[in-house]
Amino acid sequence: MEQSAKKRIGFIDAMRGMTMFLVVVAHVMTFGLGINAEKSILGSVLITFRMPVFFLISGFVAYKTIEKFSTRLYFSTIWKKIIALLIPTIVFFCFACIIKGGNPMSEFMANGFKEYWFMIVLFEIFLIYLTFSLLLKLFGAKDIAMDI
Question: What pTM value is reported for the model?
Answer without folding.
Answer: 0.64
